[in-house]
Amino acid sequence: xxxxxxxxxxxxxxxxxxxxxxxxxxxAWDERVWPIAKADLGRAFExxxxxxxxxxxx
Length: 58
Known about the structure:
mainly alpha
């Protein structure tokens, strides 16, 4: 699930976050693992929001 880490360092940050969100939402999670994945999904949405508001982005 570490899409934003070392496996895809050549991609832009917004693309890595979108791939992470897609990988979390496309998978069927077990009941005991879902709270962890849900927390990661929330953090990914926050990072995506911050990237969209970044001053360097047009």
